[in-house]
Write a structure and sequence with these properties.
By secondary structure, the chain is an alpha+beta fold. It has 3 helices and 2 strands. Helices cover about 45% and strands about 20% of the residues. Strands 1-2 form a two-stranded antiparallel ribbon.
């Protein structure tokens, strides 16, 4: 008498929730994973690393008040333009100050000659 051998169903099959459903739920609600890594030697703390991971949709992140990517020039073209405009303005101000100093410097050089 032989019993039929059957492999178990792959994880998640038949549960009604596929990866897309799970991902949609996570992005809709958001998930936070937090942890700390501490390295000690003889009760002396040598290194502490704090890890925080938030997985959420952009809309959910903004709803939570997280929007740091909008101000990061490496991630936002608007932030990059704003940074370039600010840098351009600062350079123009410095140039104007230098140009104001130049005539007085020339006069001082002419008087000393």
């Amino acid at each position: 008498m032989s019993m039929p051998s059957r492999l178990p169903d792959p994880y998640g099959q038949g549960s009604g929730a596929n990866l897309a459903d799970i991902l949609e739920r996570v992005l809709d609600k958001g998930i936070v994973i937090a942890g700390d890594i501490r390295i000690n030697l003889l009760d002396i703390e040598l290194l502490t690393i704090k890890l925080r991971l938030i997985v959420a949709s952009v809309d959910k992140a903004k709803e939570m008040g997280i929007d740091w990517w909008e101000d990061d020039p490496a991630l936002s073209s608007r932030a990059r333009r704003d940074e370039l405009a600010r840098e351009n303005s600062e350079l123009r101000e410095r140039l104007a100050r230098l140009e104001e100093l130049e005539p007085s410097r020339r006069r001082a050089e002419e008087e000393s000659s």
